[in-house]
Amino acid sequence: MAHDTLAPPPPRSRARGIGRVLIAVYAILALGATGRSVVEIIGKFDQASFAYTLSAVAAVVYIVATVALIAPGRVWYRIAWVTITFELIGVLTVGTLSLFLPELFAKASVWSWYGAGYLFIPLVLPVLGMLWLRRTR
After folding, report:
1. What are the φ/ψ torsions at residue 80 (nearest 5 degrees)?
2. What angle do CA 91, 94, 99 make, to 5 degrees?
3. Which of 63, 88, 68 minimizes the C-alpha distance to 78?
4. Whole-structure pTM value
5. Residue 9 included in any domain
6. Is residue 124 a part of any domain in this protein?
7. Is residue 10 part of a domain?
8. Per the UniProt record, which residue ranges are transmembrane (predicted)?
């Protein structure tokens, strides 16, 4: 019995408090972006392959970020940082390109115009995610 008290505590999940809301929003975006990209790629990929591929990339990022925010442990914590940082860079890059080089985007992607089609949630969410990760270090 004494041996059990010397064991390190199990890793804590970040899915507590306001983190649950953050994870829920990531999960909703993961579902939305996945559904959107599947429909776009299957039905009209030839119309705007670049934008629709970016939507698929966004979907994968949201899926991985959701899992990483839920899963406990240092490895998942790092994966969450990487995916959320990638997401912020992607939103800023695609948002800027869609404003200054609109010819690249025959159709909008999830991150076009900084996520305007999603109420700018793709722009705000990674910042909130980073703040949450820093808080739950």
Report:
1. -60, -45
2. 120
3. 68
4. 0.86
5. no
6. yes
7. no
8. 21-39, 51-72, 79-101, 113-133
